[in-house]
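WARN no homologs supplied; continuing
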Amino acid sequence: MSKAVSSRQFLVPLIIACAFFTENPDSTVVSTSLPAIAHSFDENPVR
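OK structure emitted
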């Protein structure tokens, strides 16, 4: 039982760290591509 608890104590922070890591590049890609998407629709990217 102790090994299972120790394994969970490592696994939960690892999953949370992976979620934070994937969120950051996703938001960077979206914020970088939004002006290009707006121009393709002939819209002003900043309103």
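The mean pLDDT is 85.
OK
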